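Proteins fold reproducibly. Take a sample protein:
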Amino acid sequence: MKQTLAAEDVLKRLRDNPDGYHIEAIGHINETHRFRAMPDFVSSITGVPLLEKVRSHILPFDFDKIKDFKLAPDKGISTDIYIPPPKVFDLHRQPYNYL
């Protein structure tokens, strides 16, 4: 049986039973990465009909498929419209260099 505990409960158990637990170092970490800001975000476009159509018609760079690409002439608000995340999520002009 797997049991999930909150950090406060783990600390309480450690304080209540100091002889019941021991700590052992199993390795040494020389270097880590610290995220000091939200560098970027991910927005999934899976299930967005327009973008799936762009992916299947435009991205293969096949001229016949590009010719078959048509936008829906519907007017008004639709329930399946894709609304991208707001610009406030992307405050950085250049993406972070992860290398």
